[in-house]
Each structure stands twice: as C-alpha cells, then as structure tokens.
Specification:
Chain B: GO terms for molecular function: pyridoxal phosphate binding; serine C-palmitoyltransferase activity. Chain B: Its EC number is 2.3.1.50. Chain B: Belongs to the class-II pyridoxal-phosphate-dependent aminotransferase family. The structure holds two protein chains of two kinds. Chain A is mainly α. Helix content of chain A is 85%, strand content 0%. Chain A is elongated. Chain A starts with 5 loop residues before the first helix and ends with a helix. Chain B folds into two domains: 218 residues, Aspartate Aminotransferase, domain 1 (Alpha-Beta Complex), CATH 3.90.1150.10; 242 residues, Aspartate Aminotransferase, domain 2 (3-Layer(aba) Sandwich), CATH 3.40.640. In chain B, helix 2 crosses helix 3, helix 6 runs parallel beside helix 7 and helix 14 runs parallel beside helix 16. The chains are: A mainly alpha, B alpha/beta.
C-alpha cells in the first residue's frame, strides 16, 4: 500500500483500530464515548506511571541492595 | 444397471481430492475477535438500558402499558444479538437485486437515514456488479432466448401453475419425463421430484425413519436435514464433521448397546451426510463412509444439493468424483436450485424406495407439483450436461467450472488468505474472523462493484465469520482476475491475510495467465 503522506497512514491506523475493537459498527456518538473513555484511561496510566514509577523503582533498588549489603554484618552479630 | 468403467483421470482425482485444509488463525486473531464482540455487547447493554429508561426511542415491537402486568410477549434477551449487532450492520444482507443472477447482475442502491432501522431506495441502480454469491455453478441462470426456447414453448402449452398435488390431478407427463431423466442421469433405478428443495429434506426424512430409529448426522448439516430429523421423532446423534473415527465409534456403540433404556436393537440406523458442505467447502469422505455402512449394516442418506452438477468428471456428483457405485448409496437426494438454475429437489434410489415415498411422503401427497416451465428448464439443463444431440456445451461448462475453481483457490492461497475446504469444491469460504472486518469487507467490495455474501454468527461459529464465494462456469478468466485484484487490495487494506503456510504455486497456473495477457 502506498501512503501519499503521513496523515493518510495515521488515518489507516485509526481505521484498523476501529475494525479490531469492533467500534466500526457503532454510531458516531458511541464511538466518541468509547474513544474518550479509552483516552482518559490511557492518560491516567501514563500520568500514574510518570509520577510513581521512578519512586517505586528507587525504593525497590534500595530494598534489595539493603539485603545484600547488610548480610555480612548480621551473621557476625549472630556469631557473637 | 451398468457399472461404471474407470475413467482416465481416476488416479489424479483420488490424489487431488484428499487435500482439505482448515488452517487455524494465529492466537491474536481469536483474542481480537472476542474483544470486538465483547465491546459491542457492552454497548448493546448500554443501549438496552437507555431504551428501558426511555431516553431513546425503541424501534422494536413492545407491549402497551396496560399489558405489562400479564405474561410478557416479547422476551427482551432473546433478540439481544439481533437488536444490538445485526440491526447496526444489516445493510449488507437482503440487498435488492434487479436483474437475473448471472455472472454479473444489477443491484438497487439503498441508503438508510437512521442507522439501518429503515431503508429507502434512491432510485439508482448499480450496473454490472460481478456476482460471487449466487449458486449458479454451471451458469444456467441465463436469459438467452435461444436456450430458453423449449421453456417458452412449455409455458405456452401448460401455463405456469399446476393447481394440484402430484397425487390428485397434478401429475403431468413432463414430470414423469423429468423423473426418468434424473434416474438415468444418476444411474439409479428410479427417482422422484419435488417442488421445493428444503421441503424435499424436511418432508421425506420423517417418511423414511421414525421412533426407534437412529440418525447419525454430521456436525454441520443443513437446517433442512436437522428439521427433517427432528420431525421424524428418531433419536439423533451428532458426529464430528467428516471424522470417521467419531462415526465408527458411534456406530459400534449403537449396534452393541441398542436403544437407550430397553437395549433393543435399533430398527434402522441412518447416516446423514452432504456431498459438499456449503459453509465449509469440504467434501464428504464417501468411500470410507460406504465401507463403514456396509460393515455395520446402516443406511446412507446423501444430500447432494451443492455437489450435483458441480463436481465429477461429467457432473454427476460425489459418486462420480470418488468412483463409487451409485447403488451403494441408499438414498440420493439433491436440489435443482444450484447447478440447474431452477427450483426443486429430487430423491433417487431403488424402485421400492421411490414407490414407497410416492405414497407416504408429505411433500408428495400434499404439496403442489412442480411448475411446468421450471420442469422444462431442468430437463433442458440436464440434457445439456448429459450431452444430448452430441453437443459439448455441458462438458465445456463442467470443465470451465473445474478450471475456475482450481485457479481461484490457488491464487487466493498464494495471496495469503485462509481458505477452508477441498480443492475441488466451487464453494470458497474466506475467513474474516472479526465482526468489524466482516462488515467493512462487504461494504468495500460493493463499492468496487463486486457482490459477495458474508456470513456471521448464527450460521457459523462465533469466532469464524467468513465471506463465501460461489464460483460459476459463466465467470470468465478476466472477471476472476478483476475479483482477485480487488480482493488483494481489500485484503491489504483491511489486513485479512492471516495465513502462515507457505504456498508454492504450480508453474502452469502462471503460464496460462501470461499467455492470456500476451494474446
């Protein structure tokens, strides 16, 4: 398939999305409802991941590094 | 009764008709199909809620306010699928056709202003759309006045209506002539014709079997066979489609244990199969079924609605395709709607069977006899196929259909579509799977002036929606090439090429096309 420009390619991708999700058969106002719900869910996922994922990753790394680095000290304490 | 000599091509035929493929689509396709159905179902619930609350006007039949306290007449959930999915997309079915259903036809254009609840005709006609949906296998749906001369003569002689049943005073000489012709065509002793193909099955099976008999019917049998089986009152057991192990297990279990509670032996065991299954495009495994039937002493009912005239070297159906003695099949049934361009059905077999049916079948006793011009159309079509007067028109059509079938199927596999069925069958189902793509496919093909039939949920399993192409001897190579070209474009545009098998095309296929292009 030859696409004359990028807009045509985007339009074809939108068409595929309509066909795969089955939205193609619905009326225009139903399409808008579904698109807005999906868009808001995706926006919330992106926002949450932007705000929380770095903090969670940092905490997880600290937790695991804490286990591995504090191990020799605790065995020494027990032997005492 | 003459036995059939082995024709020259039997070795090739038996090798070819073992290739049936039912390729499974990749997993993501099944997931997306269910996702599509799930989302549309959710919206269906939402719209039903709006209708119940009163925000939206309901276009369907509803009870009046005063009747709401009584027993409900319209069960809401039963029509859920019809109301919420079929109604949205029903512009792809029941399209009005305004010419004869030949290889090209005319459609009336219709639009809808309220999302397919009502339609209006714009007055314009879509001319010369290529017809890939009619069961016009040998191209006998034609209006050439030379060919139809005898039909017009009989119309002038007998009129159109018979105004009686066969048993009373509607048995015309032309009916007897057709019955003898059908019997000699199929190489059996005797045959009987009926005015309607569906009624041939549904009204004659109750005459053959009754309570205390067992019917073993294939999974995907046609509704007429199922209806006839249910009307008869016999016990029905279903075996897996074309699966001989399943059938043999059921046969041996039936013979050993007998009827369910009393363990008396079954009065009759009838195996019901079709020659070509119209939704799958597969061909029955006749030699194996006949071997099983002889071993377990069962009877065989073969419904050749789609295969008579369309397969076999001289068009005599699956018995000729597999080189089987027609006397081995106990009841041969077929219809004249598909390959002969008329209407009606027949049942053929031994003389005792047909004589019994003449007096005991509901269709024979109560239904109106076949109309004379229709009878004459069948007679002229059958004589053409049999090659009377030394004309080769019939053989030419059969060969053209076989060639069209081979070419079309090979090209489709090359392009990468998933196709079901046997390589010899002129019914070609292309799997589309997703509900949105099914609808988009039908609409896109109509825009390119090709009429196709798409089939969805109640007629097929829910995840296997398909488009069904019926090839015809009247399609020229140029028409098929045009259809294939558009199929290629639509297949790319809608991403329908799911096949993962590598297909190596035969070299002679392309030589033929090249020589045509060069000439």
């Amino acid at each position: 398939m030859n696409f004359k420009n990028f807009r045509e390619y985007l339009a074809w991708l939108y068409y595929q999305y309509l066909l795969i999700t089955g939205i193609y058969v619905l009326e225009p106002w139903e399409k808008s409802i579904f698109n807005s719900i999906l868009f808001s869910v995706i926006a919330m996922v992106i926002y949450t991941s932007y705000v929380f994922v770095p903090i969670h990753v940092r905490l997880a790394l600290e937790f695991f590094s804490g286990i591995f680095s504090s191990q020799p000290e605790s065995t020494m304490a027990l032997m005492n | 009764m003459t036995t059939q000599k082995n024709g020259p091509g039997t070795g090739v035929a038996s090798r070819q008709h073992r290739q049936e493929s039912f390729e499974q689509a990749p997993m993501y396709v099944a997931v997306m199909t269910y996702l599509g159905f799930g989302i549309v179902t959710l919206f269906g619930y939402f719209r039903d809620f709006l209708r119940a609350v009163g925000i939206e006007k309901c276009h369907l039949a509803q009870e009046r306010e005063e009747q709401k306290d009584f027993v409900p007449l319209y069960q809401d959930f039963e029509n859920f699928y019809t109301r919420n999915l079929y109604m949205r997309v029903r512009d792809n079915w029941n399209r009005p056709v305004c010419s004869l259903p030949g290889p090209v036809f005319d459609l009336m254009e219709r639009v809808s202003d309220d999302y397919n609840w009502t339609f209006r005709l714009t007055g314009k006609t879509i001319h010369n759309a290529i017809n890939m949906g009619s069961y016009n296998y040998l191209g006998f749906a034609e209006n050439n006045t030379d060919f139809l001369k005898t039909v017009a003569d009989k119309l002038c002689q007998y009129g159109v209506g018979v105004c009686s049943t066969r048993q009373e005073i509607g048995n015309l000489g032309i009916h007897e002539e057709l019955e003898q012709l059908v019997a000699s065509f199929l190489r059996v002793e005797s045959s009987m014709i009926f005015g309607m193909g569906f009624a041939t099955n549904s009204m004659n099976i109750p005459a053959l079997v009754g309570k205390g008999c067992l019917i073993l019917s294939d999974e995907v049998n046609h509704t007429s066979l199922i209806l006839g089986a249910r009307l008869s009152g016999a016990t029905i057991r279903v075996f897996k489609h074309n699966n001989m192990h399943s059938l043999e297990k059921m046969l041996s279990e039936a013979v050993c244990s007998g009827q369910p509670r009393t363990h008396r032996p079954w009065k009759k065991i009838l195996i019901m199969v079709e020659g070509i299954y119209s939704m799958e495009g597969s061909v029955v495994r006749l030699p194996e079924i006949i071997a099983l039937k002889k071993k377990y002493k069962a009877y065989l009912y073969l419904d050749e609605a789609h295969s008579i005239g369309a397969v076999g070297q001289t068009g005599r159906g699956v018995t000729e395709l597999f080189n089987v003695n027609p006397a081995d099949v106990d009841v041969m049934m077929g219809t004249f709607t598909k390959s002969f361009g008329a209407a009606g059905g027949y049942i053929a077999g031994k003389k005792e069977l047909v004589d019994y049916l003449r007096s005991h079948s509901h269709s024979a006793v109560y239904a109106s006899a076949m109309s004379p011009p229709v009878t004459e159309q069948i007679i002229r079509a059958m004589k053409c196929i049999m090659g009377n007067n030394g004309s080769t028109e019939g053989i030419r059509r059969i060969r053209q259909l076989a060639e069209n079938t081979r070419y079309f199927r090979a090209r489709l596999k090359e392009m990468g579509f998933i196709i079901y069925g046997n390589d010899d069958s002129p019914v070609v189902p292309i799997l589309l799977y997703m509900p949105g793509k099914v609808v988009a496919f039908a609409r896109e093909m109509l825009e390119r002036k090709i009429g196709v039939v798409v089939v969805g949920f109640p007629a097929t399993p829910i995840s296997e929606a398909r488009a069904r192409f019926c090839l015809s001897a009247a399609h020229t190579r140029a028409m098929l090439n045009q259809v294939l070209h558009h199929l290629n474009e639509v297949g790319d545009g809608l991403c329908l090429k799911f096949s993962r098998l590598k297909y190596s095309s035969c070299p002679d296929l392309h030589e033929e096309t090249d020589s045509e292009l060069g000439s």
